[in-house]
Amino acid sequence: MSNLLGDGGKQLLLGNEAIVRGLIESGVGFASTYPGTPSSEIGNILENISTDAGMYFEFSTNEKVALEVSAAAASSGLRSFAFMKHVGLNVASDPLLTLAYSGITGGMLVLSADDPSAHSSQNEQDNRYFSTLALLPMMEPSTPQEAKDMVSEAYRVSEELTLPLIYRTTTRVNHARGVVEFNKCSTPVSKGHFERDVVKFVNIPAHARVNRSRLLELYRKAAEMSEESPLNYIEGSGDIGIITSGVSYTYVREFIDGASILKLGFTNPLPEKKIADFIKGKKYVIVVEELEPFLEDQVLRICAQNGLSVPVYGKRSGHLPRAGEYSPDTLNGIRSLVQVQEFSEPLPRTTEKLPSRPPTLCAGCPHRGLFSATKKAVGNMDVVYCSDIGCYTLGVQPPFQVADFIICMGGGAGAAGGFAASTDQKAIAFMGDSTFFHSGVPPLVNALFNNHKIVMVILDNRTTAMTGHQPNPGTGREFGGITTEPIDIEGLVKGVGAKFVRTVDPYDVKAATAVMKDAIAFDGVAVVISKCPCPLELKKRRLLVPAMAVIDQDKCIQCYNCLRSIACPALIKKSDGSLSVDPSQCIGCGMCANVCPKKAIEVRK
Questions:
Q1: What's the pLDDT tens digit per position in 577-596?
Q2: DSSP string of 14-55?
Q3: Crossing angle for the helix pair 144-161 and 205-228, to the nearest 10 degrees
Q4: Which end of the chain is more exposed for a tag (fewer CB within 10 A), N or C?
């Protein structure tokens, strides 16, 4: 990890590392998140350095809570920072839209890390629209250096407006690397004081109407600030104009010649006068932006309102795509309109057909055992498998195929209740331990309240695995000088009234199968907790005991039950039909031995 705490100098930083450095230089005293790619590294770094930086940091139960705790800190005079991936802002949107009415007394940034091309997400929504919906200012960096530098300007604007500011990044900004020049660190204020102001902070209808008018006035002020902002500037010259923002600017800057570029960093409210002045006298204007025509539609409106008959090209004209992230190749769509540089040497292309490598559950992943047990227990029964967001989403693939319906965090359990009430099929919902604490408790309570006869399987692998092994309430907290005890999932589930609650070891597939059969047969809400640590987490903590499965070829009858039911990548079927174990992958979990009908597999330590 880079040293982000020193004064001065230059470092080669990931965009997320640069953002952390920006927080340190800006004297941020409070930060909160629910982990989600592509923003996860920010939290991983803060977990390690927040104490030395004099900053309070927490992994919150979900994004809504993360925004609420940071809102309280900012309302007490601190500079706070709430960050999440783009779909996380959906969860946090409830407090966000009313927080805009209340405003804040300190500075507050809300980072939304959008994911064009859905590299690690269930959609590629464009969260720029939240800024117009909430009437909040928004800024968008283009490079790691700008990601760091823009943080301090964003806090200045937030404090002047007394409003939270949406700091929107995308995957290629979060995960790009570049040389970043440091400024001096600032000493954070870590304790504030909340001054009571009932009209401002208590948005009952009478107060909300007053605060709405106040917000609209601040939005007008934000528009004036955008006109003067150094983050919105023109470079180059020519009668062809390009308006761009975010990472798209880097492609335009590098590969387009002979055009005048209006680079927008303060993107809501837009500097409408600056845009109109830029367009005047142009032959035509091209808007280059990823995802939705957020800028393009406003440019078209600005042209109409100012009587400008300059053609505007982009997504609406069909020259640029509306889906997926951009690349230099994307600019080929505007080659007929502007000079686009050719690559000096085209990349060599292979004629070999490479084998596909789909994502898969790790060798020894405990989810494999529980999925196998579920399939055995279900047999030929007509069921609907409702999955969720996490590693276990990979259960959609053969041989498990235990994901028929996925929408959002916690959505599987809620949907299971709907299937139970509207069909004669048995609904089985899978969710992870972190997801359970994030948004799994309400659908469990709902199922109990409405007598939805579902099976909820909580895959407790003792970490938040997919986003980088962050802690969650089920693991307890041990950083930043704060130590808390883990919350017991079984006790919580029983506490809300579940009658059928069983905890199983998924490595014991036979025993887990028996429990799943009982759960499926139960006339009510059945909860099964599959409790087994993620092997990668054990490796990280140096707790994994070396062991390996060994196959006795004399006993093996090549029934391939281990391959069909566990499908572990450490098991290899050779060309002669025999099975072997890859020692570089096997962790000796014993699931394959557990399902072998001839006891031909033995685990040796």
A1: 999 999 999 999 999 999 99
A2: EHHHHHHHHHHHTT--EEEE---TTSHHHHHHHHHHHHHHT-
A3: 130
A4: C
Burial of 299 (0-12, 13-18, 19+ CB in 10 A): buried
What are the DSSP calls for 387-414, one per residue? --SSGGGGGGSTTT---SB--STTHHHH
- Strands 579-581 and 571-573 turn out to be antiparallel
Measured at the CA of 154, the angle between CA 8 and CA 73, to 5 degrees, comes to: 100
> Is the separation of the CB atoms in 325 and 170 below 8 Å?
yes
Q: Which helix (H) or strand (E) holds 86?
A: helix 86-102
CA-to-CA distance for 452 and 446, rounded, in angstroms?
8
For the CA atoms of 564, 467, 116, 405, the dihedral, rounded to the nearest 10 degrees, stands at 40
Q: Return the pLDDT at 596.
A: 95
Using alpha carbons, select from 174, 284, 273 the residue that is nearest to residue 229: 273
Q: Which CATH architecture has domain 548-604?
A: 2-Layer Sandwich (3.30)
For domain 366-540, say whether CATH 1.10.10.60 is its number.
no
Q: Which of 113, 117, 142 is nearest to 128 (CA)?
A: 113
d(CA 216, CA 161): 11
Reply yes or no on whether the pLDDT at 1 is more than 70. Answer: no
What Rg, from alpha-carbon coordinates, does the chain have? 27
How far are the Cα atoms of 13, 276, 280, 300 from residue 309, in angstroms, in the given order? 44, 11, 9, 10
Residue appearing with tokens 């991983």: 44
pLDDT at position 541 is: 86
Q: How far is CA 522 from the centre of its chain?
A: 36
Spatial distance between the Cα atoms of 488 and 486, rounded to a whole number of angstroms: 6
Could you give the 3-state DSSP secondary structure of residue 16?
helix
For the segment 468-511, what is each residue's pLDDT rounded down to a tens digit? 899 999 999 999 999 999 999 999 999 999 999 999 999 999 99
The CATH number corresponding to 233-340 among 3.30.870.10, 3.40.50.920, 3.40.525.10, 3.40.50.2300 equals 3.40.50.920
Max alpha carbon distance in the chain (Å)? 86
Residue 240 CA to chain centroid, in angstroms?
A: 37
pLDDT tens column, 61-118? 999 999 999 999 999 999 999 999 999 999 999 999 999 999 999 999 999 999 999 8
Integer CA distances (angstroms), 143 to 262, 319, 432, in order: 16, 25, 34
Are 10-228 and 366-540 in the same CATH fold? yes
Q: Kindly give the pairing relationship between strand 165-170 and strand 108-114.
A: parallel
Other beta carbons within 10 angstroms of residue 191's beta carbon come to 12
Amino acid 252 reads V
How far lies 239's CA from each of 43, 278, 437, in Å?
Answer: 45, 10, 56
Check residue 87 and give its pLDDT. Answer: 95
CA pair distance 376, 512, nearest whole angstrom:
10
Selection from 304, 224, 226, 307 nearest residue 262 by Cα? 226
Integer Cα distance of 251 and 330 in angstroms: 9
Contact criterion met (CB below 8 Å) for 71 and 95: yes
Q: CB–CB of 46/57 below 8 Å?
A: yes
In whole angstroms, what is the distance from residue 160 CA to residue 327 CA? 36
For 429-486, give the DSSP string: EEEEHHHIIIIIHHHHHHHHHHT--EEEEEEE-SSBTTTT-B--TTT-EEETTEEEPP
pLDDT band at 131, cuts 50/70/90?
A: very high
